[in-house]
Batch of 4 targets.
Target 1
Amino acid sequence: MTALLKNVLVSLCVYLSQPRSKLDPEYCRRLGESMRLHGQKVPVIGYTDGARFVICDGGCRLEGARLAGLTEVLALDLGKEPTRAELLLTQASIDQHRQNLPPIDRANLFRAIRDENQWTARQLAESVRVSEAQVSRALALLGLPPEVQSLVNEGELDASKAYLITQEPDPAKQIELAGLARVTSRAEFEDHLRKPVLTSAPAVRLARVKLALPSGSAVSISGAELTMENVVQILAETLKEARRATEARFDVKTWQRMMADRSKARAEGDHV
């Protein structure tokens, strides 16, 4: 397959297969502005199909160019339409060089390549030039509950912590662990996972917890059937949010109102 580097009119470009699960408009806008000011660093990849140029990789760059008002994009013309397997391998090869796909999108791409070619994990690893362990860790993430996968893909949960969570077989427990992982360091999270379970007795659950502190202050937490682990997660997340508010120089009244507004907005969103 002979490839040709050339400029292509944006108006003639279309893209049909995009490994990203979604295009972030703000990211595309910033990318387009960078292309306008500093030039396009990486070409889009595709092939000529009659009067149009079909893009196999580079949807964000194309969208960025459109938003920035650019009339042309730098493109690598593959000369012909690649097979699905060739396209997937090309996208994986590009990602290995640029590491720009979110973890779950990368895992889905690996799985698609494996299934399309009916390969083993070892064959897949050799084809995309990564270790077999990297492939196994990536594919393991696809066994997590959808809400945990979303946290990973959106950067709210580190992929290395998420892999540790895959070793827990219970989906409900995986969701609980994801909440804890978001507010603890990797070392703290690993330490939590290493702690042995001392009893098989059902966890004590309360609808309201009131903690009297030695200073004379008190902390109240309410929720649906709170366990000790839930309390730890809530307090850790509260401390994290309080520190952010302090850095932003909010007073306690403003922070309290802000958190109430955020909670209300989330609740209304859940019922849409």
Note: The chain has a mean pLDDT of 85.
Target 2
Amino acid sequence: MKNREKYIYCLEGNWNRNPRSKQSIKPILDLLHTFSRVKYIYRKCFNKEDFLKGLQTFAQKRYANYTVLYIAFHGRKNRVYFGNEYVTLKEIANTLEGKLKGKIVHFGSCSTLRTSEKNISDFITRTGCSCISGYERNVEYIASTAFELLYFETLQKQYSRNKLKVIISERFPALVEKLRFVIA
């Protein structure tokens, strides 16, 4: 991979039903920006339609410098949730087919990557992304958010998928195991 900063394009869903809730991953993006100068774009998605539109926007040329797609939602096996609606990895791949060359997709959602190798391989092949990462189990918000701060900081320095896997596993073994974090 080319040695360049990995700016983040984040789509975040609602973490609960309270419209006044302040729960958000945006503060970690602010922290990354303040201390590591990581640029980011943050978009709140209230439903499936907002999410799909956000994906299409990310694929536009004007966002070519944003190499990390951060999907922060509730999740279950092979899917991302928006209240009662959901989107599967296959549906996301349909929307982004051939549009993610050299990009990294991180699912900051419970269990989304608890799926078959075929589904993961199909996603990578169809979208053209260099790798996907996320969790194979339900995760605690604070632990996963703290890990993601460390992960995104590490992404700024590492370039190959295999080297990234080794470094993340060596630096943060307890969190990788606890969260069942994977990079594919």
Note: The chain has a mean pLDDT of 93.
Target 3
Amino acid sequence: MSDASSKVRRSARLICSITIWFEVDAVAASRCEEEAYTVAMLAVARLPLTLR
């Protein structure tokens, strides 16, 4: 896993850990993390190479 990918994964996990506080549902938190990761990686892929 690339450095950028692992940073995005950690950020997604941190953001979605909030889900656990309000909605004690590990499945929802896991799904949230995967969706956040996918969206973030798609956004990074669209950045010009000079901004990555």
Note: The chain has two helices and no strands.
Target 4
Amino acid sequence: MHTQTLQLNSSDHHQITATVFAPDQASRCCLVISHGMAEHGNRYATLANWLTGQGITVITYHHRGHGPDSAHPGHYADDQGWQSVVNDLHRVISQAKTLCPGQPVALLGHSMGSFIAQSYAQQHGEQIDTLILSATNRIHHSQLRLSLWLVSLIKALRGKRHPSKAIAKLTFGKFNRPFQPARTHCDWLSRDSQQVDRYLADPDCGFHCSVGLWQDFIRGMLSINPRQWRTDLPVHLFAGTDDPVGEMGRGIRQHFQAIREAGVQRVTLRLFDGGRHEMLNETNADAVWQHLLQCLPGDSQVQNPAEHPQADFTGRVSGLFGR
């Protein structure tokens, strides 16, 4: 395995820092990872190293306002922030196609990154061969519109670059309630205490995002419409049943159903019993990584649900925002 750091220029000349993890032998596909809010692409290095051992090239990168070199931490852009992050992803995927010519390209989006990935699939679905969504949620239009009104009010009072603790408290404050007594304020991320501690100790994680980013994010989510996606695009969703972002499984199940009802023909959902928000960093991460591998382009049961009628919903099920 070997790695390479790239500096890519987006359509507005914003510089994107990306890392390529490539196997020593020829790879069979390329996976691009779109990370979550208040984290960064480097957190996926361990997963990427493992995937290269399975013959997969992986590209991670930092969204605008994220990563160690961000000029404005927690802020996309002063104008057209959501479209800018989608354009950045388009630049990364274009690079993936250059590095891995003729190979299928899969896109994995986690939490906030899952919504960026969905916007990308809506605009450039022909550029990817598989869409994988980790810890996503339904598009709750009425709740999002109310949130947009509140965020717009705060923006008018404090400005678009203001890092809002109030919005963070309203959004993330409730996520730890199901896990009381909690060891930390981020116990909702994972049952693995070491992973939670690594997140808390990371200086490039857990920061407050700007009012402008929240406004862009909400507007971006409201623009997502699976009826505008490629109907033949394989879409795979996975999450934990105890992920508060996905409403403890309820929200992601509703989104899974909405995608199916939109006419997308190859949709799967896997819920991992007891898992929290970051399934890739959970106590059963080995099983989750194996599932992710099966979702990548190939001949697996998960990748080809049309050949396996029961594969459109797998896993155990019990019982708006997120990092």
Note: The first strand starts at residue 2 and ends at 9.
